[in-house]
Design a protein that fits this description.
The protein is globular. By secondary structure, the protein is of the alpha/beta class. It starts with a helix and ends with a helix. 42% of the residues are buried. The chain is 36% helix and 10% strand. It is built from twelve helices and seven strands. Bound molecules: uracil.
């Protein structure tokens, strides 16, 4: 058995896949499109009423409840053969660029100051319900950056991203790919505060938090970004495309190669898709090696 097969077996990966329908209408970009933002707090997106596994009392993380809106195209999602890395799909977010002008160096980001700003942030309503902010975790000099959605209950309590079951799965996958979560990667979220009840992030919350993430990326200057789940992918790429459409390609965010994968919390509930997440990781590793060489 090959090393990759052994690793996949170790992670409990299966070959099948099982798409489900249904979350697209709640995406912030879609909501923004439907109703222009005002100063008033928008109606809270519904919390899906699916219970967590019996062993858990916490509300399920939203990513555990959601699934791609359409059946992913298997052919389009197959990892690139060794000889052909997918062409980067250029995306042009309107957010503040990493480089302010052509050729100009980005303004240096004072990391401790940024951490303090996040810790003291009162820019949206989530400051009222959070226990604490969740800035990020890992090595700020890492070449890999992983971006998730928002803290859940455990993260809110501990002040660190991906510390629950989803985090354990993520750690296992990173480790199977030869990456140490503390040394080789930096992990942050689109939102730094937990949405109450693990509801979906609201458009104005994403907008309020976006600058922090941009500054984190600007400071870290990763060689490669992995967007975990649809909120991260759709926010960074400013698209409403489904995960199914975004996976298996190399996008660019501010010039940095970006690969989209499933959210680990989603994978906990949709085990067969772990195999595809593993393929995403292999694609990311290949792009990374190419970018570093
Ligand atoms: N899900 C996320 O997207 N981020 C976390 O930190 C935890 C769960």
């Amino acid at each position: 058995m090959s090393r990759a097969s052994l690793q996949q077996q170790e992670m409990g990966l299966g070959p099948a896949w099982q798409p489900r329908a249904g979350w697209f209408e709640q995406h912030p970009a879609q909501l923004l499109r439907q109703s222009p933002q005002t100063d008033a707090a928008p109606a809270e997106p519904p919390v899906l009423a699916i219970s967590a596994s019996p062993s858990e009392s916490r509300p399920p993380h939203r990513a555990e409840l959601t699934a791609p809106p359409e059946a992913p195209q298997i052919a389009a999602q197959a990892p690139a053969p060794a000889s052909s890395i997918p062409e980067p799909v250029e995306s042009t977010p309107t957010a503040e660029p990493l480089r302010t002008e052509a050729g100009a160096e980005p303004a240096p980001v004072d990391w401790p100051l940024l951490q303090r700003k996040v810790a003291d942030c009162h820019d949206c309503r989530l400051c009222e319900t959070r226990t604490q902010t969740v800035f990020g975790r890992g090595n700020p000099q890492a070449r890999w950056m992983l971006i998730g959605e928002a803290p859940g209950e455990n993260e809110d309590r501990q002040g660190l991203p991906f510390v629950g079951r989803a985090g354990q799965l993520l750690d296992n996958m990173l480790s199977a790919a030869g990456l140490d979560r503390d040394r080789d990667v930096y992990i942050a979220n689109v939102l730094k505060c937990r949405p109450p009840g693990n509801r979906n992030p609201a458009p104005d919350e994403i907008a309020a938090c976006n600058g922090y993430l941009l500054q984190q990326i600007r400071h870290i200057q990763p060689t490669l970004i992995i967007a975990l789940g649809r909120f991260a992918a759709q926010t960074l790429l400013e698209t409403e495309d489904s995960i199914g459409r975004l996976r298996g390609k190399v996008h660019r965010y501010q010039g940095v190669p970006l690969v989209v994968s499933y959210h680990p919390a989603y994978l906990l509930r949709n085990q067969p898709d772990k195999a595809k997440a593993w393929q995403d990781l292999l694609l990311a590793r290949k792009i990374f090696r190419q970018a570093e060489s």
